[in-house]
Amino acid sequence: MESTMMRFPLTLSCVLERAGAYFERTEIVERRPDRSIARTTIGNFYNRSRALAESLMKSGLRKGDRVATFLWNDTVHLEAYFGVPAAGGVVHPVNIRLHPDEIAYIVRHAGDRFLIIDAALLPLLEKIKNQAAFERVWVAGAAPGAPLPAGADHYESLIAGANGNFTYPILNEDDPAAMCYTSGTTGRSKGVVYSHRSIVLHTFAEVMPDAFGISQHDAVLVISPMFHVNGWGLPHSAVFTGAKLVLTGMHFDPAAILDLIVSENITVTGAIPTIWIAVRDALEAQPTRWKIKNTLRAVVGGAAPPAALLRALEKFNIKLMHAWGMTETSPVATFGSLKSNLLSLPECQQFETRCKQGWSVPFMETRVVDAGGAVVAWGGRDPGELQVRGPWVAASYYNNPETADRWTADGWFKTGDVATIDADGYICITDRAKDLIKSGGEWISSVDLENAIMGHPGVHEAAVVAVPHPKWQERPLAVVARRAHSEVTAAELSEFLSGHFAKWQIPDAFVFVSEIPKTSIGKFKKTALREQYKDWKWC
Ligand code: AMP
Q1: Cβ(439) to ligand 1 under 6 A?
Q2: If you average pLDDT over residues 154-181, what whole number do you get?
């Protein structure tokens, strides 16, 4: 027997059409490069995305062709997010913060045929022009009359060239729609190709009440760059639900973010801990400047947030909600909303649970596997490798057969994260496998140490790395950036940690720096710290 149900493909063009029909007047707001605010509507975005799709097809875009973007968080990027896949193409937001050589490698490896670029980023195109070439280049935001690179055209002329005589190509839900490269802290960046189906299903999961909880009544702020894992899915989720969408443009400083949160009545957003740390510091420095009226659902992910950060932001009506994911998982895989059986726990235990990485969203399967290859039962105390599978998890990297060992024979993706799963199913990441510290045969979690140190009121940021040691193989070394006016010492931090850690787990050395080095998306760059302190002389 066969089911009697329609086979209806899950495509982004379907999401776009529905948004155009139902949410025509919903606002989209963006911060311009000069920091002014521009406003448009979903209706206008819908027309322009369709115009982009039509003009790209008239320009020769074939199914599966890659269209790279060198853009920040703006409406042109949003049009590319929907217009390129609607034409059968693959939108490829490139991480413009990477080194130009890496960008050139990514563009070549992806086989990008066309480029949409913000005028402010043209110097970057100049830097890579001898290493990577595009067949067509369209420049957005160029002042009228400003010179364009040879052969490039204005993005606005591309849009204006459409006459509305356009029908979508026939799309299969498994067709590629978008691609992102991993940020590649070790080795080359690797490409993940998302399908229409994987993006649509990820969007369904993301907007659920036990995840980001987004509806048409929300105002969503995209802080995470739109070149980092599809802007964490927020642009798709806002268009899908009809929520008001607010885009940060190229300004990610705490004042710019807080101004938007207040002036646009933002209800949902997401960012990495380093952004939230900067937001906390700004709020504490000027406690009366920003008044957040309704509690902001603020997702934190990309790295583990310290409990002290959750507590500090809650005083300002910002409720951090913890999520875990990767470029390879689109990104949302687990979400840390409190299960109803935990609501009666004392407050401190609730915070402890909220600092864990959460439980799987529907259709995402997670397991922890020990060094011997056995699956560890929930509630087990020993950490192992976190593995995942599901409809929006990559099954391979693009054109990269030598990385096939990142998947198990039975189809699970090996994340490289080391974790436990507690009796309620909450994942707790203790480290990236490569960040683990093994001292005298015992494992020490760098994440636990970092988060405890960042709980000290005199500390702005802290990263802990393993440094070779003649007796213990490795010992933890803490690199600490103090808060303004703080004079906290190594002895004070050591004493502070002794309440939470055994003596052998406490770092033997604390190095004070003005700032922790960051990756292109703002996470702590531990590879750089390991390299810098590898010859540390232990006394
Ligand atoms: P990316 O592909 O750049 O998004 O990086 C993914 C990696 O970031 C994961 O494999 C984790 O190591 C780390 N990560 C993401 N979310 C969290 C989180 N909530 N807590 C700890 N680490 C995280």
Answers
A1: no
A2: 96
Ligand 1 atom closest to Cα of residue 323: 19
Give the domains, in start order, of the chain with CATH numbers. Answer: 12-27+39-204 (3.40.50.12780), 339-433 (2.30.38.10), 436-532 (3.30.300.30)
User: Rg of the chain's alpha carbons, rounded to an integer?
Assistant: 23
Residues 406-428: what's their mean pLDDT? Answer: 97
How do residues 104-122 score in pLDDT, each as one tens digit? 999 999 999 999 999 999 9
CB 91 within 8 A of CB 130: no
State the catalytic residue, choosing from 438, 442, 492, 495.
438
Rounded to 10 degrees, the C-alpha dihedral 372/373/378/383 comes to 50
DSSP one-letter string for 118-142: EGGGHHHHHHHTTT---SEEEEESP
Name the helix (H) or strand (E) containing 203: helix 196-207
The residues facing 39 across adjacent strands are 29
Which residue's C-alpha comes closest to atom 18 of ligand 1? 303
- List the residue whose alpha carbon is closest to atom 15 of ligand 1: 302
Give yes or no for a cis peptide into 331 (omega within 30° of 0): yes
- Cα(494) to centroid(ligand 1), Å: 28
Angle in degrees, CA 139, 140, 141, rounded to 5? 125
324 within ligand 1 shell (Cβ under 6 A): yes
* CA 343 to chain centroid: 28
User: What's at 17, amino acid-wise?
Assistant: E
* pLDDT attached to residue 77: 98
List the residue whose alpha carbon is closest to atom 23 of ligand 1.
Answer: 303
Give SS3 for 247: strand
Atom number in ligand 1 closest to CA 327: 2
Q: Give strand ranges (E) for 309-412.
A: 318-325, 332-335, 359-360, 365-369, 384-389
Going from the Cα of 20 to the center of ligand 1, the distance in angstroms, rounded, reads: 34
Take residue 305 and report the two structure tokens written for it.
């947030």
**pLDDT (0 to 100) of residue 500:** 84
